[in-house]
Amino acid sequence: MKALVWDETLKLDKNYPIPEVSDDEVLIKTTMAGICNTDYEITKGYMGYKGILGHEFVGVVVKTGKNADKSLVGKRVTGEINLACGNCSYCAKGLQRHCPNRKTLGIYKKDGCFCEYFTLPQKNVIPVSDAIDDITAVFTEPLAAAYEILEQLHIRPDHKVAILGDGKLGLCISLVFSALNIDYTHIGRHREKLEISKKLGAKVKLSDELEKDDIKNYDVVVEATGSSGGFETSVSLVKPRGTLVLKSTIAAKEGLNLASVVVDEITVLGSRCGQFRPILRLLEKGKIDVKPLVSAIYSVDEFEKAFFENEKKGTLKVLVKF
Ligand SMILES: [Zn+2]
Ligand SMILES: [Zn+2]
Predict the structure, then answer these.
(1) Which ligand is nearest to the CA of 57?
(2) Distance (Å, rounded) from C-alpha 99 to C-alpha 54?
(3) How does pLDDT run across 18-65, given as a tens digit for each residue?
(4) What's the pTM value of the predicted model, to 2 decimals?
(5) What is the distance in A from the centroid of ligand 2 to the CA of 90?
(6) Which of 145, 201, 312, 322: CA 20 to 30 A from 88?
(7) CATH architecture under which domain 143-270 falls
(8) Which fold has domain 3-139+290-321?
(9) Any idea which ligand is nearest the CA of 84?
(10) Which backbone phi and psi does 34 adopt, to 5 degrees?
(11) Which ligand is nearest to the CA of 86?
Protein backbone atom coordinates (compact mmCIF):
# COMPACT_ATOMS: atom_id res chain seq x y z
CA MET A 1 0.00 0.00 0.00
CA LYS A 2 0.97 3.66 -0.24
CA ALA A 3 2.20 5.19 3.02
CA LEU A 4 3.84 8.51 3.95
CA VAL A 5 6.73 7.47 6.16
CA TRP A 6 9.00 9.62 8.30
CA ASP A 7 12.43 8.10 8.96
CA GLU A 8 14.84 11.04 9.06
CA THR A 9 13.48 11.84 5.60
CA LEU A 10 9.92 12.04 4.34
CA LYS A 11 8.99 9.44 1.74
CA LEU A 12 5.87 8.16 0.03
CA ASP A 13 6.48 4.40 0.14
CA LYS A 14 4.39 2.58 -2.46
CA ASN A 15 5.07 -0.94 -1.15
CA TYR A 16 4.45 -0.62 2.56
CA PRO A 17 2.87 -3.82 3.98
CA ILE A 18 -0.81 -3.66 4.97
CA PRO A 19 -0.90 -4.13 8.78
CA GLU A 20 -2.22 -7.28 10.44
CA VAL A 21 -5.42 -6.81 12.47
CA SER A 22 -5.15 -8.05 16.04
CA ASP A 23 -8.14 -9.47 17.96
CA ASP A 24 -9.45 -6.20 19.44
CA GLU A 25 -8.71 -4.02 16.42
CA VAL A 26 -10.37 -2.99 13.18
CA LEU A 27 -8.71 -2.32 9.82
CA ILE A 28 -9.61 1.06 8.35
CA LYS A 29 -9.32 2.07 4.69
CA THR A 30 -8.48 5.77 4.69
CA THR A 31 -10.80 8.05 2.71
CA MET A 32 -9.29 11.42 3.62
CA ALA A 33 -6.60 12.66 6.01
CA GLY A 34 -5.57 16.06 7.36
CA ILE A 35 -2.05 17.39 7.86
CA CYS A 36 -1.47 18.94 11.26
CA ASN A 37 1.36 21.05 12.71
CA THR A 38 2.19 18.11 14.96
CA ASP A 39 3.08 16.08 11.83
CA TYR A 40 5.36 18.89 10.78
CA GLU A 41 6.92 19.09 14.27
CA ILE A 42 7.66 15.35 14.16
CA THR A 43 9.82 15.98 11.09
CA LYS A 44 11.71 18.47 13.27
CA GLY A 45 12.30 15.82 15.96
CA TYR A 46 9.18 16.00 18.16
CA MET A 47 8.65 12.78 20.20
CA GLY A 48 11.55 11.12 18.32
CA TYR A 49 8.89 9.36 16.27
CA LYS A 50 9.63 7.26 13.17
CA GLY A 51 6.99 5.53 11.07
CA ILE A 52 3.82 6.38 9.16
CA LEU A 53 2.71 9.90 10.03
CA GLY A 54 -0.85 11.17 10.51
CA HIS A 55 -3.67 11.17 13.08
CA GLU A 56 -6.51 13.14 11.46
CA PHE A 57 -8.72 11.00 9.22
CA VAL A 58 -12.03 9.65 8.08
CA GLY A 59 -12.19 6.16 6.62
CA VAL A 60 -14.21 2.98 6.26
CA VAL A 61 -13.85 -0.17 8.36
CA VAL A 62 -12.96 -3.05 6.01
CA LYS A 63 -12.05 -5.81 8.45
CA THR A 64 -12.47 -6.60 12.15
CA GLY A 65 -10.36 -8.66 14.56
CA LYS A 66 -11.74 -11.75 16.28
CA ASN A 67 -13.14 -9.83 19.29
CA ALA A 68 -14.19 -6.63 17.48
CA ASP A 69 -17.77 -5.73 16.52
CA LYS A 70 -18.41 -7.21 13.03
CA SER A 71 -21.25 -4.75 12.37
CA LEU A 72 -18.64 -1.99 11.95
CA VAL A 73 -17.56 -3.39 8.57
CA GLY A 74 -18.58 -0.94 5.84
CA LYS A 75 -19.15 1.93 8.31
CA ARG A 76 -17.55 5.37 7.88
CA VAL A 77 -15.55 6.13 10.99
CA THR A 78 -13.12 8.43 12.65
CA GLY A 79 -11.20 7.60 15.83
CA GLU A 80 -9.58 8.75 19.05
CA ILE A 81 -5.82 8.92 18.60
CA ASN A 82 -4.65 7.88 22.09
CA LEU A 83 -4.37 4.12 22.51
CA ALA A 84 -4.66 3.49 26.24
CA CYS A 85 -3.62 0.27 28.02
CA GLY A 86 -6.99 -0.23 29.74
CA ASN A 87 -5.33 -1.72 32.85
CA CYS A 88 -3.78 1.17 34.79
CA SER A 89 -5.25 3.43 37.51
CA TYR A 90 -5.68 6.31 34.99
CA CYS A 91 -7.63 4.10 32.60
CA ALA A 92 -9.76 2.86 35.53
CA LYS A 93 -10.73 6.50 36.23
CA GLY A 94 -11.67 7.15 32.59
CA LEU A 95 -8.50 9.17 31.96
CA GLN A 96 -7.41 7.12 28.94
CA ARG A 97 -5.89 10.18 27.29
CA HIS A 98 -3.48 10.38 30.26
CA CYS A 99 -2.64 6.67 30.41
CA PRO A 100 1.14 6.52 31.03
CA ASN A 101 1.36 3.43 28.80
CA ARG A 102 -0.50 5.01 25.90
CA LYS A 103 0.58 4.95 22.29
CA THR A 104 -0.56 7.72 19.97
CA LEU A 105 -1.58 7.29 16.34
CA GLY A 106 1.18 8.60 14.09
CA ILE A 107 2.90 10.36 17.02
CA TYR A 108 4.19 7.75 19.45
CA LYS A 109 4.82 4.01 19.00
CA LYS A 110 1.90 3.49 16.59
CA ASP A 111 1.85 3.86 12.81
CA GLY A 112 -0.42 6.68 11.69
CA CYS A 113 -3.16 7.18 9.11
CA PHE A 114 -1.23 8.71 6.18
CA CYS A 115 -1.57 5.40 4.33
CA GLU A 116 -4.22 3.36 2.60
CA TYR A 117 -4.91 0.94 5.48
CA PHE A 118 -4.22 1.22 9.21
CA THR A 119 -5.52 -0.35 12.41
CA LEU A 120 -7.09 1.05 15.58
CA PRO A 121 -8.53 -0.69 18.64
CA GLN A 122 -12.27 -1.01 18.14
CA LYS A 123 -12.93 1.01 21.32
CA ASN A 124 -11.20 4.03 19.68
CA VAL A 125 -13.41 3.98 16.59
CA ILE A 126 -16.54 6.14 16.28
CA PRO A 127 -19.03 5.93 13.38
CA VAL A 128 -19.60 9.18 11.48
CA SER A 129 -23.14 10.23 10.55
CA ASP A 130 -23.99 10.53 6.83
CA ALA A 131 -24.89 14.14 7.57
CA ILE A 132 -21.16 14.89 7.94
CA ASP A 133 -19.14 14.96 4.71
CA ASP A 134 -15.56 13.67 4.48
CA ILE A 135 -13.87 17.08 4.56
CA THR A 136 -15.78 18.03 7.69
CA ALA A 137 -15.20 14.65 9.37
CA VAL A 138 -11.40 15.02 9.07
CA PHE A 139 -11.63 18.06 11.35
CA THR A 140 -13.11 16.03 14.23
CA GLU A 141 -9.74 15.59 15.98
CA PRO A 142 -8.56 19.23 15.90
CA LEU A 143 -12.06 20.47 16.80
CA ALA A 144 -12.20 17.98 19.70
CA ALA A 145 -8.91 19.43 20.94
CA ALA A 146 -10.52 22.88 20.82
CA TYR A 147 -13.62 21.60 22.64
CA GLU A 148 -11.42 20.18 25.42
CA ILE A 149 -11.14 23.74 26.83
CA LEU A 150 -14.87 23.63 27.60
CA GLU A 151 -14.58 20.22 29.25
CA GLN A 152 -12.00 21.74 31.58
CA LEU A 153 -13.32 25.24 32.17
CA HIS A 154 -16.78 26.69 32.68
CA ILE A 155 -17.00 29.87 30.62
CA ARG A 156 -19.83 32.03 31.92
CA PRO A 157 -21.91 34.33 29.66
CA ASP A 158 -20.53 37.38 31.49
CA HIS A 159 -16.90 36.35 31.01
CA LYS A 160 -14.72 38.35 28.66
CA VAL A 161 -12.92 35.82 26.47
CA ALA A 162 -10.03 36.20 24.02
CA ILE A 163 -8.33 33.74 21.67
CA LEU A 164 -4.78 34.70 20.72
CA GLY A 165 -3.48 33.20 17.48
CA ASP A 166 -5.15 32.88 14.08
CA GLY A 167 -3.50 29.73 12.71
CA LYS A 168 -5.33 26.39 12.35
CA LEU A 169 -5.48 25.91 16.11
CA GLY A 170 -6.84 29.37 16.94
CA LEU A 171 -9.39 29.12 14.13
CA CYS A 172 -10.60 25.68 15.27
CA ILE A 173 -11.13 27.13 18.76
CA SER A 174 -12.97 30.04 17.18
CA LEU A 175 -15.28 27.65 15.25
CA VAL A 176 -16.13 25.74 18.43
CA PHE A 177 -16.65 28.85 20.60
CA SER A 178 -18.88 30.35 17.95
CA ALA A 179 -20.93 27.12 17.62
CA LEU A 180 -21.54 27.28 21.38
CA ASN A 181 -22.50 30.97 21.33
CA ILE A 182 -19.54 32.08 23.41
CA ASP A 183 -18.86 35.81 23.13
CA TYR A 184 -15.14 36.24 22.35
CA THR A 185 -12.51 38.42 20.75
CA HIS A 186 -10.15 36.75 18.28
CA ILE A 187 -6.71 38.36 18.19
CA GLY A 188 -4.15 37.54 15.51
CA ARG A 189 -1.65 38.80 12.96
CA HIS A 190 -3.51 38.09 9.73
CA ARG A 191 -6.50 40.15 8.69
CA GLU A 192 -7.62 37.54 6.10
CA LYS A 193 -7.62 34.72 8.66
CA LEU A 194 -9.41 36.81 11.28
CA GLU A 195 -12.03 37.50 8.63
CA ILE A 196 -13.18 33.86 9.07
CA SER A 197 -13.93 34.57 12.74
CA LYS A 198 -15.49 37.91 11.93
CA LYS A 199 -17.97 36.18 9.61
CA LEU A 200 -18.91 33.94 12.55
CA GLY A 201 -19.81 37.04 14.53
CA ALA A 202 -16.66 37.28 16.66
CA LYS A 203 -14.97 40.54 17.55
CA VAL A 204 -11.54 40.55 15.91
CA LYS A 205 -8.38 42.53 16.52
CA LEU A 206 -4.91 42.59 14.99
CA SER A 207 -2.17 41.97 17.58
CA ASP A 208 -0.47 45.26 16.80
CA GLU A 209 -3.76 47.11 17.31
CA LEU A 210 -4.03 45.96 20.93
CA GLU A 211 -4.62 48.93 23.20
CA LYS A 212 -4.08 49.79 26.82
CA ASP A 213 -7.70 48.86 27.49
CA ASP A 214 -7.02 45.29 26.41
CA ILE A 215 -4.38 44.81 29.09
CA LYS A 216 -5.74 42.83 32.06
CA ASN A 217 -9.15 42.98 30.44
CA TYR A 218 -10.09 39.33 29.86
CA ASP A 219 -11.34 36.71 32.31
CA VAL A 220 -10.21 33.92 29.99
CA VAL A 221 -7.41 34.07 27.41
CA VAL A 222 -6.64 31.11 25.17
CA GLU A 223 -3.03 31.04 23.96
CA ALA A 224 -2.92 29.42 20.51
CA THR A 225 0.05 31.13 18.86
CA GLY A 226 2.80 28.71 19.81
CA SER A 227 5.32 31.55 20.12
CA SER A 228 7.04 33.01 23.18
CA GLY A 229 5.87 36.50 22.15
CA GLY A 230 2.31 35.21 21.96
CA PHE A 231 2.63 33.73 25.42
CA GLU A 232 3.75 37.05 26.89
CA THR A 233 0.93 38.93 25.16
CA SER A 234 -1.57 36.35 26.43
CA VAL A 235 -0.40 36.77 30.02
CA SER A 236 -0.72 40.55 29.74
CA LEU A 237 -4.35 40.30 28.59
CA VAL A 238 -5.57 38.21 31.55
CA LYS A 239 -7.36 39.96 34.41
CA PRO A 240 -5.92 39.39 37.89
CA ARG A 241 -7.32 36.05 39.12
CA GLY A 242 -8.30 35.21 35.53
CA THR A 243 -7.47 32.06 33.56
CA LEU A 244 -4.86 31.52 30.88
CA VAL A 245 -5.48 28.43 28.75
CA LEU A 246 -2.38 27.04 27.03
CA LYS A 247 -3.27 25.14 23.87
CA SER A 248 0.16 25.04 22.26
CA THR A 249 3.22 23.35 23.72
CA ILE A 250 4.94 26.72 24.03
CA ALA A 251 5.41 25.87 27.71
CA ALA A 252 8.32 23.64 26.64
CA LYS A 253 10.35 26.69 25.62
CA GLU A 254 12.83 28.33 27.94
CA GLY A 255 12.96 31.92 29.09
CA LEU A 256 9.24 32.48 29.64
CA ASN A 257 8.61 35.26 32.13
CA LEU A 258 6.07 33.94 34.63
CA ALA A 259 6.31 36.79 37.19
CA SER A 260 2.93 38.32 36.31
CA VAL A 261 1.29 34.89 36.56
CA VAL A 262 2.27 35.01 40.23
CA VAL A 263 1.61 38.71 40.85
CA ASP A 264 -1.83 38.62 39.21
CA GLU A 265 -2.65 35.16 40.61
CA ILE A 266 -3.48 33.83 37.16
CA THR A 267 -4.69 30.26 36.84
CA VAL A 268 -2.81 28.51 34.04
CA LEU A 269 -4.70 25.65 32.42
CA GLY A 270 -2.92 23.22 30.11
CA SER A 271 -5.21 21.75 27.47
CA ARG A 272 -4.51 19.04 24.89
CA CYS A 273 -6.70 16.41 23.15
CA GLY A 274 -10.46 16.21 23.56
CA GLN A 275 -13.38 13.83 23.16
CA PHE A 276 -14.83 13.23 19.71
CA ARG A 277 -18.50 12.62 20.51
CA PRO A 278 -19.51 16.19 21.46
CA ILE A 279 -17.87 17.50 18.28
CA LEU A 280 -19.47 14.87 16.05
CA ARG A 281 -22.80 15.95 17.51
CA LEU A 282 -22.15 19.62 16.65
CA LEU A 283 -20.98 18.64 13.15
CA GLU A 284 -24.04 16.46 12.61
CA LYS A 285 -26.28 19.39 13.50
CA GLY A 286 -24.41 21.57 11.00
CA LYS A 287 -23.23 23.97 13.74
CA ILE A 288 -19.66 24.18 12.41
CA ASP A 289 -18.55 25.03 8.87
CA VAL A 290 -14.91 23.99 8.43
CA LYS A 291 -14.69 24.82 4.72
CA PRO A 292 -13.09 28.28 5.13
CA LEU A 293 -10.15 26.51 6.84
CA VAL A 294 -9.37 24.24 3.87
CA SER A 295 -6.41 25.57 1.87
CA ALA A 296 -5.94 22.66 -0.53
CA ILE A 297 -6.87 19.04 -1.22
CA TYR A 298 -4.20 16.76 -2.77
CA SER A 299 -4.34 13.20 -3.99
CA VAL A 300 -2.34 10.53 -2.17
CA ASP A 301 0.27 10.39 -4.96
CA GLU A 302 1.09 14.05 -4.26
CA PHE A 303 1.48 13.50 -0.52
CA GLU A 304 5.01 14.90 -0.26
CA LYS A 305 3.89 18.00 -2.17
CA ALA A 306 0.90 18.34 0.17
CA PHE A 307 3.23 18.17 3.15
CA PHE A 308 5.41 20.98 1.83
CA GLU A 309 2.32 23.03 1.01
CA ASN A 310 1.33 22.72 4.68
CA GLU A 311 4.65 24.33 5.69
CA LYS A 312 4.03 27.44 3.60
CA LYS A 313 3.14 30.56 5.52
CA GLY A 314 -0.52 31.51 5.39
CA THR A 315 -1.66 27.96 4.66
CA LEU A 316 -4.47 26.61 6.79
CA LYS A 317 -5.61 22.96 6.57
CA VAL A 318 -4.18 20.80 3.79
CA LEU A 319 -6.14 17.60 3.14
CA VAL A 320 -5.20 14.45 1.25
CA LYS A 321 -7.72 12.29 -0.58
CA PHE A 322 -7.15 8.56 -0.97
ZN1 LIG B 1 -3.59 17.19 14.81
ZN1 LIG C 1 -3.70 2.80 31.02
Answers:
(1) 1
(2) 20
(3) 999 999 999 999 999 999 988 998 998 888 899 999 999 999 999 999
(4) 0.94
(5) 6
(6) 145
(7) 3-Layer(aba) Sandwich (3.40)
(8) Quinone Oxidoreductase; Chain A, domain 1 (3.90.180)
(9) 2
(10) -120, 140
(11) 2
